[in-house]
Structures are given as C-alpha cells and as structure tokens.
Specification:
Structural class: mainly alpha
Oligomer: single chain
Helix content: 40-55%
Largest sheet: none
Radius of gyration: 17 Å
Shape: globular
C-alpha cells in the first residue's frame, strides 16, 4: 500500500494513519464494521495494536494469541466493539486464514490480482466477509487505495460507482461521513417499512446487519 494514503474512516488521526499504511488494519477495521458506528469500528485496529504494545497488527501474533486473553484485550474499557468477545474470535479467525493462505500478509489478498471478480472471490473467502462486506471493501480498495484490477467497479456492485455516498469506501471527511450515514439510515428505514408491509427482504440482505457503515449513529 501507498504509505501516504490519508483516510478519514476512524475520524482519529492516529487510527486513520494506521489504516492508511497497514493492509491488515484496514481488513480488521472492515471486519469490525457492523452493528456499531463506523468510527468505532475503524478505530479498533489502532486500539488493538496499542494494547498489544505494537505500532501495527501482526496476523501471526494475533492468530497464535490465547483466545481468552485476546477476548479480554478487546473487552477492556473502552471496548473495541459492542460485542468484543465474538469479534475477538472473528479477528483471530481472519488472521489464521491469512497465515494459512497468504503467509500472514494481508496485502497478498489483492496484490497482483488479475480481475475484480477474482478479488471479490478472495475477499468473500475471508472469515467474516459476506458478499456485501466484500463488495464494500473492494470498493474501498479501488477508491482509496488505488487497487483497481479489471472490472473492479462492476465486482463491487453499487458500492463501486463513482460519485455516490453509500459506504466506507466513499468517506473523505466529516461531510461525506454524514452523507453516507444518511444514506444508510434511509435504506434501513425503507427496509423496515417494507417488512411492515410484507415486502421486506426475508434474507435480511438490506437490513444493514453485515454492512459497513455507521448504520447506527
């Protein structure tokens, strides 16, 4: 990754600086980005690194960490997530996958990937990454990190479109954060209204349960 990428996902300089230089931190932030405000989720990697006494996350270290001790680390006040125990398990599963398949190098997931479709496949294979989360992260890679294999916008679905404010991929500052949050709240309200009239999506795909994004303010 470009060492000079500036992000505004955590809305905290130190946390955003880590996200901009650490592929693993970016992946972990995306993993945590559900059922909590986006800023809380993307501040998580910096908090975890600091509690580990490091300036970055290491997939080998996290995967090998005692599960109970790692859960306790994420549960310290302020907690890294609303559900620190379950998310600690997911973070360790993600890191174990990276160690097994990519030598612990998160950037290898997208380095030299030939097409957007292949990148989406790799992201969906990561523990904790469903279709929607994978598409949002793919859009984030394309829009903010310059990772743009052939067909990346198409593979990212609606999140890959230019000029939209739909997800973490579109955050460039406080104003765009507010626009993304408004979009999410509008979509959530629409999903609730559809459910009330019996027209909702029974799969919950539009509920925001596994999306990025500050679905809750």
């Amino acid at each position: 990754m470009d060492k000079h990428i500036t992000l505004h996902l955590a809305q905290q300089p130190e946390a955003d600086e880590l996200l901009g230089r650490s592929p693993l931190a970016a992946l972990v932030g995306m993993l945590l980005d559900q059922q909590v405000p986006m800023e809380w989720a993307f501040s998580g990697p910096w908090t975890i690194a600091r509690r580990l006494g490091a300036d970055d996350l290491d997939a080998h270290v996290i995967a090998a960490y005692d599960p109970e001790a790692f859960a306790a680390l994420l549960s310290e006040k302020p907690a890294v997530h609303r559900y620190p125990g379950s998310m600690a398990k997911r973070v360790q599963q993600l890191c174990a996958h990276l160690v097994e398949h990519y030598g612990g190098n998160a950037e290898a997931v997208w380095a030299d990937v030939p097409t957007g479709a292949e990148l989406l496949r790799r992201l969906k294979a990561l523990p904790g990454f469903g279709e929607q989360k994978a598409q949002i992260f793919l859009a984030l890679l394309g829009k903010r990190f310059g990772v743009r294999p052939k067909g990346w916008r198409e593979a990212a679905g609606g999140y890959g479109a230019a000029g939209v404010h739909r997800s973490a991929a579109d955050i460039t500052g406080p104003e765009s954060l507010a626009e993304v949050r408004a979009y999410k709240q509008q979509r959530k309200a629409g999903a609730k209204a559809g459910a009330a009239t019996g027209k909702g999506n029974p799969s919950g795909a539009a509920s925001g349960k596994t999306t990025a994004a500050g679905t809750r303010s």
